[in-house]
Amino acid sequence: MLAQLKEEHRDLDSAIKALQALAMNDELQIKRLKKRKLALRDRIQGLEDILCPDIIA
User: Fold this and answer.
1) Residue 5's Cα: distance from chain center in Å?
2) How far apart are CA 48 and CA 33, in angstroms?
3) 6 φ, ψ (degrees, to nearest 5)
4) From CA 15, how far away is CA 21, in angstroms rounded?
């Protein structure tokens, strides 16, 4: 599951870069993709924290 989320995150990054490269890019679509990418990053971080907790002793 974690690998799938990371792959989706990379795919979104590629899609955002491709849209930004267009002369007539869709700013609203780019903002939506960035928001989705940030949500994925938070979800990935949450799962990584569960799998490998940062224990301060």
Assistant:
1) 8
2) 22
3) -65, -40
4) 10
